[in-house]
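Two entries, shown back to back:
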Amino acid sequence: MIGLTALHVAAQLGREPAAKRLLSAGASVNAVDGKSGRTPLHYAAELNHVDVAAALVDAGARVDVASYSGCLPVQAALARSHDRMVALLENAGMATVTL
């Protein structure tokens, strides 16, 4: 995949320990991939990796960054009925969003 960082991959795979290690080593929490403009938080939200998303939010991930298509992480979670993820993102400062 184009432009994925190791943190993107850890978020995709739901690897919280790896994500935390990468973050502590200085990985960019808000890096966007080169193809879709998604951040690691987008991938965690889409795939319902709540623990990874929580670690990303704790590390300063912006919940208001839209992908190139205009999709916010909370919208990705809503579209897939990931209720715990939606609650996490809303508590992190994202206003309630509807599809």
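entry 2 starts here
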Amino acid sequence: MSENRRLTLKLAAMAAGSFAFGFALVPLYDVFCEIAGIGSRANLERAAVVAEAPDADRRVVVEFTSSVPDGGAWTLLPAVSSMEVEPGRLYEAHYVATNLAGRPATGQAVPSIAPARANRHFRKTECFCFTPQAFEADERRELRVRFVVDRELPAGIDRLTLSYAFYDASRAGAG
């Protein structure tokens, strides 16, 4: 077999493997989200049920923070720095995002919860992080997140931090 033919077969195998890996990413992402406790449909359905029975005897402080790690031309700031919530009750918080790029751009928020062991007990029923956010040049917008802290949150946890890293998705797609 000629060297060119071997190289062609290897390249074709790599292309097929890459294509198969691309298809496998969607179910792998779903598994990751399920393990991490973020964004799964089961968690959203469970959050809707939990929201019907709040624990009026317990209070948890939820702190809100944000960052723009890639140095993008954005600001993302929480409307309030914290709120006191009852586990099992549905709440709403807001962040204010501004596109400073001087051109239309798309931002994507990536959430995280601290402490990590509380992650599966924090349910977002609606979140600007679920989809990329398209902005016009210099547009400023209020973004909403609706959430429930599970009644099953371990007793030793009385403070959570919801943090968003906001990335310029339009730059990532162009590169």
